[in-house]
Amino acid sequence: MPISHYGVLKGKVTDSMKGNEDSPHYQVLVEDDQGTKYRIAINIKSQSYPSEVLYFVSDDFNSGNITLLPGIPSGFTEINDNRSGLALDYIRGNLFDPKKMIPLPADTPGPDNDLNDKINYYIEKAKNEKAVIYAYGDKWGPEPDKPDQYFNFLPGNGIHDIHMNQGNVGKWEKDNGTWQDGGVLIYFEESQKWIGIFLAFQSQSWCTDDQGNATRPVSECNYLNAGKSKK
Fold this sequence. Notes:
Radius of gyration: 17 Å
Helix content: under 10%
Number of domains: 1
Structural class: mainly beta
Number of helices: 1
Order of helices and strands: EEEEEEHEEEE
């Protein structure tokens, strides 16, 4: 069964918070044009072995999807059959070369050597330059009686599953689906450049069927040989 409320959140970054052992997510506070606040929760560590999350960033991203994004309203846009052209699929969409993904630890001593550091660089740049951020994933909220646990706004509201959402096995298999992958795109108006940030778990298979379920084990079809077979 696919994730419940797949879509894309459009807004401006106003704050952020690095993840840690107790909370292995990089948190981003985003506000839309109407003043509604959302939290983006980005996984920086996998619950499955290996724990290092796969990461790739394109500093000059180009895809058919981005021609549609400036035209969507600020805030959350649900992606369904009527808006399928907005959807992301790491395997079918030819967004990037999976072999360029690298596994990174969540947080380790030293500069620019972990997922916290890599994501923080682009989020801070987006905040300082007032860039537009587009976060793809699964929406939760609004929760009228529950303030956000990190940024304390009310109602609690946000988006998670900002990573590949297919090829899962075991208890996460229920989230599998095609054309429902997560990710972060950032548009910098001054340079007219798009940044694409893509994440996946090493426990996910890159060979999936039309329902997004793994057709071959990850040992035979990981990100390094993703292009060899999709079935």
